[in-house]
Write a structure and sequence with these properties.
mainly alpha; globular
Length: 359
């Protein structure tokens, strides 16, 4: 019983530290949903060229969609004419990071990793999207045909296509803000919260059961640690936000920053279930390139991040950040608000989604 209480205490510490940043992330996600039109991304990704891949990678970085939520969004923009390269870039940068996971990274790791993580996601998406464009390109799609396809794309994968052409009344600023917050603290919270709490629980168990000596014995070599995180992360279903407390707990025990980044990149962008859907969206050849690009990029960026932390001399302070007791009033209140949102969802509270999942 004492062991169970210790796990709960460590998990509660992680939750109290990250909860204020989670709420901030959901709020910003609501703003993005409210003020970025649903067809904005599809409109900019209609042609297969380098600029569309750059745009797709950039658009995906702040969007708060998890590993499963990005699939219908990617299917939607693909149906509306986005090329394979742009769709690949969007599929990678979107689940690897987002405003919610960036804020939690700041809380549980440090500001430097909060900057390096989205930058790495962007570079991974850019690199992989370009090699898909080179080795498995699309044919040219004419604008008229793209428009016809989007008009006829009445599929569950994307609800935006038919809605974009319906003569509906344009909502005011307050209605858009209200709808964005309903989406963020409703649909998005339901998608992410369970995995986030699971990640917090795993972080608590790692803190209790994994000693620095044990981690040093098995993952003391940075190169071995990176490959181990790659092997663990690829088949595992874990969203960007949920992967953060797990990585932070491992770093606390001595895992090198580069290996942590490998897990933060590979885990959210790949899992066995998602890869089967991606193969239907992009095809088998592009899916193989997709996975290979993530593996190569994650390892190279892992080495680069280790070099950055070595040069800046920040590793020691980074690993010590979670030693403190973070059960402040704001942290405790934010954690209780998160639990309140869970109870509201379980109690039948439903949020009316504005638009749809695809952006």
């Amino acid at each position: 019983m004492a062991l169970f209480e210790k796990i709960l205490l460590e998990s509660w510490n992680v939750l109290c530290l990250s909860a204020p940043y989670m709420l901030l992330g959901f709020f910003v996600a609501g703003l993005l949903k409210a003020f970025i039109p649903d067809n904005f991304i599809a409109h900019h990704l209609g042609r297969e060229n380098r600029s569309s891949i750059v745009k797709a990678a950039l658009f995906g970085v702040p969007l708060p969609l998890c590993s499963c939520g990005v699939l219908p969004a990617a299917a939607g923009i693909r149906k509306q004419g986005a090329g394979k390269g742009a769709t690949t870039a969007f599929l990678i940068s979107t689940p690897e990071t987002g405003v919610d996971s960036i804020s939690v990274t700041w809380a549980l790791l440090d500001p430097l990793m909060a900057l390096l993580r989205p930058l790495s996601a962007f570079l991974t998406a850019l690199f992989t999207g370009q090699i898909v464009r080179i080795f498995d390109p699309d044919g040219h799609v004419e604008d008229k045909q793209l428009l016809a396809d989007s008009l006829g794309a009445t599929t569950p994968a994307c609800c935006c296509a038919p809605k974009a052409f319906l003569p509906i009344k344009k909502p005011g600023m307050w209605e858009r803000l209200q709808g964005g917050m309903q989406f963020s603290f409703g649909t998005l919270f339901r998608d992410i919260s369970g995995w986030f709490f699971l990640g917090v629980g795993i972080a608590g168990m790692i803190t209790v059961f994994v000693s620095p000596e044990l981690l040093d014995r098995w993952l003391g070599n940075p190169i071995i640690a990176m490959f181990a995180m790659l092997i663990i992360g690829i088949p595992l279903y874990v969203c960007a936000t949920a992967s953060t407390p797990i990585a932070a707990a491992l770093v606390l025990k001595g895992l090198n920053p580069g290996a942590a980044l490998v897990f933060l990149l590979a885990g959210p962008a790949t899992n066995a279930a998602a890869l089967s859907v991606i193969s239907k969206i992009l095809g088998t050849k592009s899916t193989i390139i997709y996975l290979s690009g993530i593996i190569v990029s994650s390892l190279l960026l892992g080495f680069a991040v280790d070099g950055v932390y070595s040069l800046t001399n920040l590793t020691a302070g980074w690993q010590a950040i979670t030693h403190e007791d973070h059960r402040s009033f704001v942290g405790t209140l934010s954690a209780l608000i998160l639990f309140g949102l869970v109870l509201f969802q379980k109690g039948g509270g439903k949020s009316a989604d504005v638009g749809c999942e695809c952006h």
